[in-house]
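> forwarded from #structure-qc
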């Protein structure tokens, strides 16, 4: 990822084909012995593994900007990290605390603190003699910090217990359920360009739904918030929402509760790309006609189009 002119070079391009692959374990590990051991165990359990041996594989070695970035980082190495991890959507992240080629303390702290990635469990392992590093990893937000010997001996059980894997069968079943009245109201508001109101209605629908189908409402409401921020020329606010929505919208089936999720994903991608091309200084020039309505069906009929 290249950063030019201080603008984040994010790319909202994850596909449903990626989502249908085996769940991913992301390992910031360089030791060949451990990469082979972990990968062999992971594959037996039905996971694929991606290795990051050096920080430069995520971002070039450059300092963070001199100002403090609240929430998701939008420039600098932290921005590159969040962009990649939110695209990959791993079920589990592993850090080898002996890998000095990765700024693991800063990265653990960032990954475990921002909405775009904080749901992903982070597990660390290191020498039992390096008490300081183990304490630092725990303080940074790692879910589990283990001595290397225990990590190796309990690896299968640790992966099975801590990896966060979605249940596609449960999601498919939830997607067969009808839209609630609050959700329908939110979609109607969305399609009238009333994005703030749509967020409120969809949040009500999300809070009332206790099943995995609530992720659909979370996805659409975050698209609504991103569009609302674009209308207000709030580049940073919109950029953060595009990062956050990936975890909700990408695992969804192409159609869920009558909503054409595939089209919504494609529309959000186009909007995001157009926003990136303009950058923060020119966001006021954004072509608002790109903010397309949500396509959905009730009783086999197409949902309402927005008022012109």
């Amino acid at each position: 990822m290249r950063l030019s002119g201080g603008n984040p070079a994010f790319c909202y391009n994850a596909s449903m084909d990626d989502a249908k692959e085996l769940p991913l374990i992301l390992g910031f590990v360089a030791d060949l012995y451990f990469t082979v051991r972990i990968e062999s165990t992971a594959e037996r359990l039905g996971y694929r593994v991606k290795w990051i041996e050096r920080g430069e594989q995520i971002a070039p070695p450059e300092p963070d900007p001199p100002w403090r970035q609240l929430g998701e980082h939008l420039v600098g190495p932290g921005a590159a990290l969040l962009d990649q991890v939110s695209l990959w959507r791993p079920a589990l992240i592993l850090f080898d605390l002996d890998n000095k080629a990765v700024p693991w303390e800063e990265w653990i702290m960032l990954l475990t603190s921002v909405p775009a990635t904080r749901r992903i469990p982070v597990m660390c392992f290191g020498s039992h003699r390096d008490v300081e590093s183990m304490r630092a990893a725990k303080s940074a937000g790692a879910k589990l910090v283990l001595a290397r010997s225990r990590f190796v001996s309990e690896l299968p059980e640790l992966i099975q217990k801590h990896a966060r894997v979605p249940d596609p069968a449960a999601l498919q079943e939830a997607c067969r359920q009808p839209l609630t009245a609050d959700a329908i109201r939110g979609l109607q508001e969305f399609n009238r360009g009333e994005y703030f109101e749509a967020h409120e209605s969809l949040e009500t629908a999300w809070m009332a739904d206790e099943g995995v189908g609530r992720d659909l409402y979370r996805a659409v409401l975050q698209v609504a918030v991103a569009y609302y921020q674009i209308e207000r020329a709030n580049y940073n606010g919109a950029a953060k929402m595009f990062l956050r929505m990936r975890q909700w919208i990408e695992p969804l089936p192409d159609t869920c509760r009558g909503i054409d999720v595939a089209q919504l994903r494609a529309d959000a991608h186009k909007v995001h790309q157009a926003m990136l091309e303009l950058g923060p200084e020119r966001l006021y020039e954004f072509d608002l006609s790109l903010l397309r309505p949500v396509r959905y069906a009730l009783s086999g009929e197409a949902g309402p189009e927005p008022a012109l």
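QC bot note: DSSP finds 13 helices and nine strands in the chain. The two ends are 39 Å apart (CA to CA).
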